[in-house]
Amino acid sequence: MTAHQLILKQRAELLAVLCGGGSAEPLDCVLDLLLACEVLVWEDYLSIRVVEKPLLSNVRQLLDVVYDKGEDACSLLLAAMNQVLPEEQKAGLCFGKECAVLGKNRPDTATLTLLADRPVLVRKLRDNIDGALNALLTTGCFTIKDCDAVQLPVYTPSQQVRRLLDQVRFKGETAAKTLLQYLEQTETTRPNPEDKENHLSANCLLYQKKLRSSVAAQSHSLSTYGGTGRFSLDDIYTDGLLEVMDGSGETLTLGLEDVVGPLGTLNEDADTVLVSGEAGSGKSTLLQRLHLLWAREALLTNTFLLFPFSCRKLNSEHRELSLKELLFLHCCWPDRGQDEVFQFILDHPNLALFTFDGLDEFKQGFTDEERHCCPTKQVPIPILLFNLLQGTLMKGVMKVATSRPQAVGSSLKHYLRKEVLLKGFSPGGIDCYVKKHHSDPAMARRVIESLQANTVLLSLCHIPVFCWIVTKCHQELLGGQDVIPQTITDVYLLVLQHFFQRKSPQPQGVLGKAWLEEHLDTVLKLGQLALEGLEASCYVFSGYELQRNGLTEQDVSLGFLIYCNDLSVTDCKRYEFLHITLQCFFAALYVVLNRNSDRSAVSRLFQAQYRQLSGLSQRCLGHCIDSSVEEVESHVTETPNLQITAQFVSGLLSQRHHNLLLECCPIAVRERKVKQVVKSLSKGMQRHFKSIPRPVEGEKKSMHAMPSFVWLIKCIYEMQDNSIARDTMAKLDVEHLKLTYCNIGPVECTALAYVLKYLRNPVGLQLDNNSVGDVGAEQLLPCLHICHSLYLRNNNISDEGIRKLLENGMKCESFQKIALFNNNLTDACTQHFALLLKSKQNFLSLRLGNNNITSQGAEQLAEGLSYNQSLQFLGLWGNKIGDRGAEALAAALKNSTTLIWLSLVDNGVGSAGACALAKLISQSKTLEQLWLRGNNLSPEEEEELSKQESRLTF
Ligand code: ADP
């Protein structure tokens, strides 16, 4: 039968398969191929693909147009369909003689090249649309409007690429050339998905389809919104702040697509990317988003199979498994051709991606002692997992693991390709999240306003899990609570109350004052389960375990426990707490409210941290553990959870919650526990203070904070008792407090300021390389009076944060130095520095390197400098002050009798500026060094100036 006849005879079937599932993708793919091999010309394409018409009529038009073009065209159409359609849809159809759909000669214009390569380009550009649009925008080929029209969210990524290609064609040859150039530059070494598709069997494709659909189902909604059914991940997902440190120590900001990409790679030989962040910073949610986008083919399009694992669930796998069993039993079972599918994975490791959520929750700490590389041999799960992470097993498979930072030891770091830090929401992210949560804009506005009025609460919202609670409990918040939430304990009490209220039989769900007492029984049962779980690194519970703790269905229906969302093949229901922090909160409630707990439970909880540090087991309360096992196993997983629990215990025992706890816990018991907490905190601090080395002669007495210092500070903050903070700090006698790289965000700043404000003598507070941000900077204000120096290098601070900091700093007598290297400062903040310099005649050092200050900013600074007679150090390295700025500074500083050091390295300063500066230094009696390297001066000019003045350094 001729192709002509085949088309006519099978018209109904061809129509059905090309419209199958309602997606236009198969039709679009066929059209791409037919355009590429010139069966269709552009005008045909426009007449066929009319978006306003139903898909069926588009397909009919295609069949008609091609039919009219004759036999060759018909056979190419059939060949194109044969190539595009999945095997199962082709059953029963006849595509005639085999023929390849190939482009003819290489086209000689860029526009025609785009047409000839269209099928490949659609695939290549799918996860690179932003980059391509950017290239077109910056070269002026596209306007913003063009970009918006391409990226309308109703289109799938492939459709967006086709719109992009159509628009480029419309714009003409220059646009087409720009796009081709962009593609040439971005051609990566990743395998071409086409190669893989040529070798794919029907079984592999079927498996991929099944895996995609189970991953999509599993990642579609967030567990914290589980019961409500109100939000899908699409509705609520808000981008978090992702950072990576590159080889030169520079921090780069990443997008979700860069997590697996090359940006920030430190070790090319390793295949494991670690995403680390504190509890609740959104690690699991980020992985979930990656999974969902992969399942929809919207991201990671070069990944053919993605296998998601949860470490907390792997904890309950006690069998020895082979790699094949791990993949198929824990993720998705192939219905056909298991061996073939597995062989495909082994043969193409670069097409697979494994994700491991919550490495910190895996019972056993990472070791690389036992090597295992056989994919078919059964071994215990830890060996399998650790060898996968190391790359001993399945080298070449990309792995993404998430963990809290504390749980990642140096042995694992050795095997990391890169470590991506997830820092929670930015201030804009918080707004965006609240707006997504509340469909009513007026309500969203009220919540945002209430957060802005309570900056402590706002700072908490940088951590997404707190943001979720605060937004969820907006009614309680806006309704005016007795206690305005200030601490994380306050926030978790709010959510506790909210959940009980939801189930309250009273009209409007109003809870009485004694609501905690009314629900004490449930709280204690959940608390015991939570605590026992934490002690045993157990975060998933069977129905039997719930029963053993006396938990009824009614208790479960309150919503604190949820069913595990699980891909693995198990036949019993399993439960977990809504979030690990909620498990810690219930554990803390149990420690505080349980009348039968042994007397030293509280002290032991606090001491657990130190036992771990000294290498002993950190089991804390030990009532459900076999003590013989205790000493042998080396665990790291519990420590962060026990620290959070201890923080909640401190908060619950705060005087603020005295009334709430009154009927639940005898006063004497409560007071005993309070004393124990205070003693533990004081002892913990003493340990730190004792570790302070004696100052080297001529240097300041300095303390570099140990890991649990910030935790102790946070516990003191939770207690909200000034006298405790004052008494603890009275014993700290240092001149410099170093807290660099300590994951200090806004929440930690609140606690630090609360405690440090009681220091007896001024200190230098060094917070370089954290995530303080504007909100954190504002939180530091209460302790500014006790800081003689504030080091905030690399902290994401912008003009607004600086404005507030300086307004207060100006009034603080001791405040003399500030270092703000590598933040987001612009000319908008220099007026505040000018004011500071004018009004504070004891200010010594101002370092503003690597920001975005231009000549205008320098002129403003100069204005302040001309009135100042105290500044000794001025650093402006890596800004853009140019000649004008340099001249202004030189003029302003000519009367300075204090300036010792000035850096204007890398500032675009030319001869005019340099001459002015040379004159300044030649007249100055104090200036010892003026750095001018990396400016717009010729080597001859530099030599000449250095000869004139040796204090000028290039
Ligand atoms: P982690 O794994 O770091 O402990 P999760 O991902 O479990 O944190 O986040 C806890 C909760 O915070 C989520 O269940 C969700 O309600 C909220 N959340 C976290 N990240 C996001 C995000 N990117 N967008 C929206 N909500 C988020």
UniProtKB/TrEMBL annotation:
Positions in coiled-coil regions: none
Entries under CDD domains matching the protein: CARD_NOD2_2_CARD15
Keywords: ATP-binding, Cell membrane, Cytoplasm, Immunity, Innate immunity, Leucine-rich repeat, Lipoprotein, Membrane, Nucleotide-binding, Palmitate, Repeat, Ubl conjugation
Taxonomic lineage from the root: Eukaryota, Metazoa, Chordata, Craniata, Vertebrata
GO biological process: innate immune response; regulation of apoptotic process
Compartments where found: Basolateral cell membrane; Cell membrane; Cytoplasm
A molecular function GO annotation: ATP binding
InterPro entries per the UniProt record, alphabetical: CARD, DEATH-like_dom_sf, Leu-rich_rpt, LRR_dom_sf, NACHT_NTPase, NLR, NLRP_HD2, NOD1/2_WH
Listed name of the protein: Nucleotide-binding oligomerization domain-containing protein 2-like
Topology class, membrane: Lipid-anchor
Any single GO CC term annotated in Swiss-Prot or TrEMBL for this entry: basolateral plasma membrane
Similarity comment: family membership: Belongs to the NOD1-NOD2 family.
Sequence ranges assigned to domain CARD in this UniProt record: 1-83, 106-187
Domain spans labelled NACHT: 271-407
Pfam families attached to this UniProt entry: CARD (PF00619), LRR_6 (PF13516), NACHT (PF05729), NLRC4_HD2 (PF17776), WHD_NOD2 (PF17779)
Main location: membrane
Cross-referenced Gene3D superfamilies: Death Domain, Fas (1.10.533.10), P-loop containing nucleotide triphosphate hydrolases (3.40.50.300), Ribonuclease Inhibitor (3.80.10.10)
